């Protein structure tokens, strides 16, 4: 039918062409697609295709709601684009499937990627704006004075895309989880309100509904807002379902936020800090057992530290590292070296992606990630735009970091300097001690870069066109 033909052509075009479709099947009302490269999907255009009643993501599937005539559309789609036909499946198959660890992990990574990818334009803009005071300020060319208006302007504007990440994440996560985007923004704004920031900075004890609160800074964080909005989506739906329609406009948002206040500030927000403290104590205990346990612990820290950052566990680890430096005469051999290899493993992932990229747009975007990372120390665009989005590259980055950390542990290379930046100047963390320590530090970081780059190039995009 003519209408079906127009619908099918619109769908295929928005999915990045027939060559981007790995497989396709249908249930009673939906077309279900497995795709090679999700980055080619034109989500906004897909929403406007006449005949597509809605869409959702379930694991690695993109599901398009077509309605009762889906079987006819499916037949014509397969015949037109020579797609192998598969038997229709039960509409409720997704809910009946076994909940495996792999499925849970895939859903988590997909939720993080889908929520962060829409924020990337703001992050990229902030990244390049923040490079201006970095390059032209006192740390490099020294053309701009830190007291000048233009320096201060670009400094705070360049920080906007990062500082307000909880608000951005609140909006995009709400869209992902199908709840109120305004309330999602509200959740993120709660975390950054000046009064709350003042409470955190003052260190004065504070309680929520009479329960003592663990003070945590949420500026530039993403995961606390993401988890909070995910929880909120169920609470909002509960009240929307159980309250009379006449009361929903006022009491659904009111009751939802009143319940979310203690959940955000007493449970979800501090969770990363609690886990980070526990991990830090475990790492120190294992590392004190001898040289081999210390090497293995440092290797593990290098391999998982990027996830510690994502889930807000890095601050306790960093504080423990400072304590170790004080105890060991100003050097840390256990935690900070792994932090450094994490930075350079991510850089290696970016380099591997650059050489692997076939699409000119992806190549240009990856190059911009490398520049902002190497000069400005800004890792979020690459972390979420490549690592989390395509999943395998972040694993390659972690493996490269672990290999570099193993080398550092093997040659007992420690950090003598606390470096606050994640750019190339992070190599100076190994300066301040013996010359051999700095040399081994450089080699270890180089190993992290090269290992991650090679692994990303070979295995990071094995089943994806990039």
| Tally of distinct domains | 3
The pLDDT mean sits at 88
Assembly annotation: single chain
Low-confidence stretches: none
Specify the overall morphology.
Answer: globular
Counted by DSSP, the helix tally is 19
Write the layout of secondary structure elements.
Blueprint lengths: L1 H13 L6 E6 L3 E6 L7 H5 L6 E5 L2 E5 L4 H12 L11 H4 L4 H16 L3 H17 L12 H15 L1 H13 L3 H12 L1 H9 L4 E2 L2 E2 L10 H20 L2 H43 L3 H20 L3 H14 L8 H21 L3 H17 L3 H11 L1 H19 L24 H26 L6
Antiparallel strand pairs: 1-2, 2-4, 3-4, 5-6
Helix pairs in contact: 1-3, 5-8, 5-17, 6-7, 6-16, 8-9, 8-11, 9-11, 11-12, 12-13, 12-14, 13-15, 13-18, 15-16, 15-17, 15-18, 15-19, 17-18, 18-19
Structural description of this entry:
With 466 residues, the chain is mostly helical. It folds into three domains: 2-97, 2-Layer Sandwich (Gyrase A, domain 2); 114-271, no CATH class; 288-460, no CATH class. Helix content is 66%, strand content 6%. It is built from 19 helices and six strands. A four-stranded antiparallel β-sheet has the order 1-2-4-3, with helices on one face. Strand 5 (207-208) and strand 6 (211-212) form a beta hairpin. Helix 17 (380-390) crosses helix 18 (392-410). The longest helix is centred in the middle third of the chain and has 43 residues, at 245-287. The protein is globular and about 75 Å long. 40% of the residues are buried.
């Amino acid at each position: 039918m003519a209408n079906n033909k127009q619908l099918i052509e619109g769908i295929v075009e928005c999915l990045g062409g027939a060559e981007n479709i790995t497989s396709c099947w249908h249930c009673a009302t939906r077309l279900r697609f497995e795709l090679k490269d999700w980055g080619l999907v034109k989500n906004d255009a897909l929403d406007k295709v006449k005949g597509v009643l809605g869409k959702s993501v379930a694991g690695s599937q993109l599901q398009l709601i077509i309605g009762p005539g889906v079987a006819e559309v499916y037949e014509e789609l397969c015949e037109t684009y020579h797609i192998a036909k598969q038997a229709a499946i039960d509409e409720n198959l997704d809910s009946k499937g076994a909940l495996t660890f792999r499925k849970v992990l895939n859903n988590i990574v997909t939720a993080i990627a889908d929520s962060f990818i829409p924020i990337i334009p703001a992050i990229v803009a902030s990244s390049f704006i923040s490079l201006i005071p970095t390059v032209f300020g006192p740390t490099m060319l020294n053309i701009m004075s830190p007291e000048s208006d233009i320096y201060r302007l670009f400094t705070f504007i360049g920080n906007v895309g990062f500082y307000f990440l909880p608000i951005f994440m609140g909006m995009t996560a709400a869209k992902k989880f199908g709840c109120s985007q305004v309330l999602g923004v509200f959740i993120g704004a709660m975390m950054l309100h000046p009064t709350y920031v003042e409470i955190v900075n003052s260190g004065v004890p504070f309680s929520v509904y009479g329960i003592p609160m663990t003070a945590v800074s949420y500026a530039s964080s993403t995961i606390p807002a993401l988890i909070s909005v995910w929880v909120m989506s169920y609470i909002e739906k509960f009240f929307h379902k159980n309250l009379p329609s006449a009361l929903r406009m006022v009491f659904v948002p009111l009751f939802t936020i009143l319940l979310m206040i203690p959940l955000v500030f007493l449970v979800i927000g501090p969770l990363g800090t609690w886990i980070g403290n526990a991990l830090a104590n475990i790492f120190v205990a294992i590392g004190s057992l001898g040289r081999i346990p210390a090497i293995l612990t440092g290797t593990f820290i290098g391999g998982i530290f990027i996830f510690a950052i994502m889930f807000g566990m890095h601050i306790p680890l960093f504080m423990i590292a400072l304590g170790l430096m004080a105890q060991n005469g100003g050097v840390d051999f256990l935690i900070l070296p792994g932090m450094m290899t994490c930075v350079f493993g991510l850089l290696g992932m970016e380099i591997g992606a650059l050489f692997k990229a076939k699409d000119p747009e992806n190549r240009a975007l990856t190059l911009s990630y490398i520049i902002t990372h190497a000069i400005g120390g800004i890792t979020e665009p690459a972390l979420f735009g490549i690592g989390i989005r395509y999943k395998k590259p972040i694993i390659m980055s972690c493996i490269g970091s672990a290999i570099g950390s193993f080398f550092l542990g093997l040659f007992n290379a420690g950090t003598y300097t606390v470096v606050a930046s994640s750019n190339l100047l992070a190599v100076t963390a190994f300066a301040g001690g013996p010359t051999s320590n700095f040399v081994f530090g450089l080699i270890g970081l180089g190993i992290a870069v090269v290992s991650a780059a090679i692994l990303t190039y070979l295995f990071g995009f094995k089943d994806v066109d990039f």
